[in-house]
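As agreed, record minuted below.
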Amino acid sequence: MGYHRNFKGIWITKEIWLSKELTLQEKVFIAEIDSLDNPEKGGCFAGNNHFAELFNLSKSRVSDIIKSLVTKKMITRKIIKKQTGSIRYLKISHYLKTRIAQSQNLDVRTSQNQVPHSGESDNIVIQDNNNTFNIKGKSKNKRRGPL
């Protein structure tokens, strides 16, 4: 696990912990993604290998859990494609932050370009010879409901 951080533990909010919508694995993934979030770099850029090793899961199971969290609008996924390869960034979604803030009567301000209930919020950014293309994905799952 090559991701360095000042690790003192993981905090899972009561809204996530008590959620009937999330599996236990999804709850710990959210906590790990949030703990690895590096705003200066654009989010958590840990690959599936990191999660597979940490949680003793196969890479395909890790991929399924991340897809599920994106579909449930709990996290956002942004992929930056360059000529040398691509980097995936994961972040806690604005939808999830808003739900937590509402339950705690807090005001959430974020720079994420996600509208609650707007879909999957996958962004793919392709950078090639100083040109940038931003492609926004949509979810087929229009699920709405409480945490």
Summary: The chain is about 35% helix and 20% strand.
